[in-house]
């Protein structure tokens, strides 16, 4: 069910009821950029470094579509589902709400447009939202405005001498107004159409000073000055009250979608998402509060807001499920759970609230949220199939997955919101500096005594290199120190030693300001991007999407498509002993 | 005529021909933000300050629609017109071109969407563009990539020992390939499907080392390893040539709309725009080259790119036309020139290339460009009506208008691209500091001995105040110095003295990074925004749009709509002796 500004008010209580009565909630978001998370990740980033990069690079993009899929357990493996797709766009009708500026990434926008995302609907009918801090600021500013009025009312007004240019008009209007006091006058009001704000101001002043207690009041209605007799004090109160109610409605409309998020937060229901970290960050940043700079604070904040979280990407990559999922991108996960040993749940939906699983409508946040929920249920059933079949979303079998968030391109770590993050060994990882002319060939040769390696480029002359065979770590550390000392311009530093040597630059927020990507960066990367799937830095989502995700090697589509004869191919194909599969846009 | 990616190639030579053969070109642009120019203008900014603010605040928005309306003189007051509306969006299919990030302003996006702008068409079918510097970078990166290949071809390859894990597969593939050399073999090729990039690399190496001169070549086609016998050197050259041609086509497609801009530049035709500065800046920045920081360089650059420019907004605000145009926003200009003493030209257009003047399709860049051209012709005819009726776009009557650009909200200055800018006196302008509790009432009273004033707020405690009666300047300078010294917290400094006292902060480019507008700023402004049309800083386009544009005073729509009884109104209405009409989004 699509939810826009036009049907939001009508549907909101239904949706809130659905949230309160469900067993769990699956969600998904679409953004105007970096749907895939930050582009400058290294597979050896700590969770804190990962978070800092996400914060500095991804949060200025807009949250444009929120998929909410609520599942209510009926019996056995039967669930009722209701799925809602919210189009979200900041309010621009309320002049006192912020006029949001946001960043877009051309590739993400094109990608969404090609997948049928309706931007016209978004921009015309998107539901507004205002997070609590902005709501408070709006209330404060309205309050301040009201107070200023009242203060001005009760304090003596500075008198302005009527300038000569305005005097004839002010006198003319005053004559008309005074006529209202004539007992023979049967007009209830005087209306003056062509009257500037300044003249009206002067008329108000004159009425206040010369006609106090006369029962004459002056106001402006759609630019027309209107003077009436016999306006009672009670009426003034009624109008004030009416105005206050109007303002309250205006605020409620501006808060918009945030009230749905509040209902979700208050429900304390289990939240399920696929590759959930980015969505969670955007949900908090746009609808709850600014994300803290401090990683520990971030964990505490999200954990207290969402005490029960399952990231299905983490669920499928770890523990007993790991070997059953050849790929953990969402369409592949759906494929896997659609066949034995998995089984899909039986789903019913009220008219217009359901999703057709067969539609393959990926990248619609409602479809993705629904598929995520289905995958979660299938995986849970499999986990329980050897024990008691309770199909409970509170199953203790989920304990090792609960509140763990998958980190893109960092397969051996995660964010554990409820406790300590894993601290995988980096003894097999080296920071290598080398001459500009080096390609991955040279690195492979340099490290050949220790078997296959994975290269994560930093720039033309620097890379992280990790040994596939971790048992070689000690030997490599000893030998490479010597070896590099013989080669000019080559240095090899162990990961821990390198990290200790300086404060990580990744926590700098400077890149938040970065607007247009530099072709120079792309150019630099190009020299190393043939057939080497795992690159960091300026690579694009798309490029990453096009890379295959198996462990045996990645080939860019470019190489795969363009026919080249043997020697060109031989030159461009590089050994791709990539342990870090590159995920695509689906997460 | 709408021009998108789908019909651009087909139409481009027609359009280029139309540009070359026309009498003049009218253009208009639509952007993703600040269609109205920078929001932090002061009416006392110098042209250089104005330019610096535009550069720092407006250039990260995207140029999304370019209206091109070319007029060719037929006879007397008859013209042929062809109008094209280009939807423009950066290329995201070419992985080596930059993945542009751009800024959007929610109010501008909403505004365009409400006026029927088709964002889906934009994002799906927008024509790409790549300015010359980006094109060069793209060529360089492609060249670098090619060189790397060739270099690798001609230099000895580092040998990689075949690892034990890959050896069986490599051996198996090599056996198959060697079979091709068997005279009895009638297969022309061997295809190996399941083969990682690394294994392919090892196979290439083995073929190179063991089968040199055998006539066997190996390449990859869509991920499949293909070995063939008898591939000639000529074929290799043909394939290289084909690849080079494909790359050239790829570059041509990426350059896209920039070739139209090049044709315009080369034509040296008279360029006409309405409120032209912002459009010109965006045209240069997106399609020509980065705008220089230095104002003088900017003038020289634009003047050399576009040697003949008419800004119809400047044309209608100055000289003999000034008193004939009650407003210079585009729809008002069109209204004025549609009635005597003006006369509309007679226009013919080829099928599908014309514009219906009656459609009132404002904010479509094609319509706006066309109306601009029509207004220019009508104004020119009026100017010539007392002299020789040559209707020439080279009329010397335009000399005082040529290459002058209107500055929004700065009615007494302009940018003169071809010479010295005006230097209007600022002797009647004062920089005033005052207590936080002050409103415009207090300022009006403070300055009352010198007549009406205009207030341009800087913040809660600072404003620029100008005297409407410039002859009061000297007297005010003498008296106010004394007056302020008696009041604590009030200081009055003459404009020239204030400017001299510090380097203008407006040249800082820090705000380029500013992404989300702060509600606090809006809040602050609120305290002073009642009925006072001319504010600077955080005010929104919309707010400005809603303000009336006459000289007698401006009233915000809010005040005009909400019924308030006399005293509330009296408190909120402020004297609005605004000499600086606030223009709307039409320019």
Automatic annotation (TrEMBL), chains A, B:
Residues covered by region (Disordered): 528-587
Domain Poly(A)-specific ribonuclease RNA-binding: from-to ranges: 419-500
Biased composition, class Polar residues, residue ranges: 546-557
Pfam families, alphabetized: CAF1, RNA_bind
InterPro entries, alphabetized: CAF1_poly(A)_ribonucleases, Nucleotide-bd_a/b_plait_sf, PolyA-riboNase_RNA-binding, R3H_dom_sf, RBD_domain_sf, RNase_CAF1, RNaseH-like_sf, RNaseH_sf
GO function terms (MF aspect): metal ion binding; poly(A)-specific ribonuclease activity; RNA binding
Organism domain of life: Eukaryota
CC per GO annotation: cytoplasm; nucleus
SUPFAM superfamilies per UniProt: R3H domain (SSF82708), Ribonuclease H-like (SSF53098), RNA-binding domain, RBD (SSF54928)
A GO biological process held by the record: siRNA 3'-end processing
Similarity field: Belongs to the CAF1 family.
Name of this protein: Poly(A)-specific ribonuclease RNA-binding domain-containing protein
Taxonomy of the source species: Eukaryota, Metazoa, Ecdysozoa, Arthropoda, Hexapoda
């Amino acid at each position: 069910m699509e939810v826009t500004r036009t049907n939001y008010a009508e549907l909101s209580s239904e949706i809130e009821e659905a949230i309160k009565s469900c067993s769990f909630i699956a969600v998904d978001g679409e953004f105007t950029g970096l749907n895939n998370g930050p582009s400058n990740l290294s597979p050896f980033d700590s969770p804190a470094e990962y978070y800092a990069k996400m914060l500095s690079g991804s949060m200025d993009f807009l949250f444009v579509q929120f998929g909410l899929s609520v599942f209510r357990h009926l019996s056995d493996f039967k669930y009722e589902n209701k799925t809602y797709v919210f189009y979200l766009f900041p309010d621009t009708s309320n002049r006192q709400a912020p006029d949001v500026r946001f960043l877009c990434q051309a590739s993400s926008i094109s990608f969404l447009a090609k997948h049928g995302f309706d931007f016209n609907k978004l921009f015309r009918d998107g539901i507004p939202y205002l997070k609590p801090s902005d709501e408070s600021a709006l209330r404060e500013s309205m309050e301040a405005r009201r107070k200023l009025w009242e203060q001005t009312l009760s304090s003596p007004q500075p008198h302005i001498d009527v300038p000569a240019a305005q005097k004839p008009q002010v006198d003319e209007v005053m004559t008309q107004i005074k006529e209202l006091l004539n007992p023979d006058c049967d007009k209830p009001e005087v209306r003056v159409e062509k009257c500037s704000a300044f003249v009206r101001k002067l008329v108000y002043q004159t009425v206040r000073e010369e006609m106090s207690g006369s029962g004459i009041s002056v106001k402006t209605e759609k630019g027309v000055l209107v003077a009436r007799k016999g306006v009672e004090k009670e009426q003034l109160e009624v109008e004030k009250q009416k105005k206050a109610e109007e303002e309250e409605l205006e605020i409620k409309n501006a808060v918009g979608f945030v009230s749905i998020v509040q209902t979700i937060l208050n429900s304390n229901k289990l939240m399920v998402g696929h590759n959930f970290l980015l969505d969670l960050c955007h949900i908090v940043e746009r609808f709850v509060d600014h994300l803290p700079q401090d990683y520990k604070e971030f964990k505490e904040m999200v954990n207290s807001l969402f005490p029960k979280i399952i990231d299905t990407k983490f669920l499928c990559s770890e523990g007993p499920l790991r070997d059953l999922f050849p790929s953990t991108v969402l369409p592949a996960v759906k494929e896997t759970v659609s066949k034995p040993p998995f089984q899909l749940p039986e789903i019913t939906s009220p008219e217009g609230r359901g999703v057709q699983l067969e539609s393959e409508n990926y990248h619609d946040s409602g479809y993705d949220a629904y598929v995520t929920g289905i995958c979660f249920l299938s995986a849970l059933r499999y986990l329980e199939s050897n024990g008691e079949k309770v199909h409970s979303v509170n199953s203790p079998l989920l304990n090792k997955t609960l509140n763990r968030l998958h980190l893109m391109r960092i397969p051996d770590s995660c964010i554990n919101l409820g406790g300590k993050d894993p601290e995988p060994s980096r003894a097999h990882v080296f920071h290598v500096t080398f001459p500009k002319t080096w390609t991955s060939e040279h690195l492979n040769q340099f490290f050949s005594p220790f078997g296959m390696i994975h290269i994560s480029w930093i720039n033309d002359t620097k890379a992280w290199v990790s040994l596939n065979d971790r048992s070689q770590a000690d030997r490599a550390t000893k030998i490479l120190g010597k070896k590099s000392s013989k080669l000019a311009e080559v240095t090899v530093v162990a990961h821990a030693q390198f990290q200790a040597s300086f404060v990580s630059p990744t926590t700098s927020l400077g890149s938040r300001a970065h607007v247009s990507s530099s072709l120079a960066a792309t150019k630099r990367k190009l020299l190393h991007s043939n057939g080497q799937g795992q690159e960091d830095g300026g690579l694009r989502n798309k490029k990453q999407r096009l890379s295959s995700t198996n462990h045996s090697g990645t080939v860019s589509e470019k190489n795969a498509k363009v026919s080249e004869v043997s020697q060109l191919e031989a030159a461009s194909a590089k050994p791709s002993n990539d342990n870090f599969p590159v995920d695509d846009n689906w997460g």
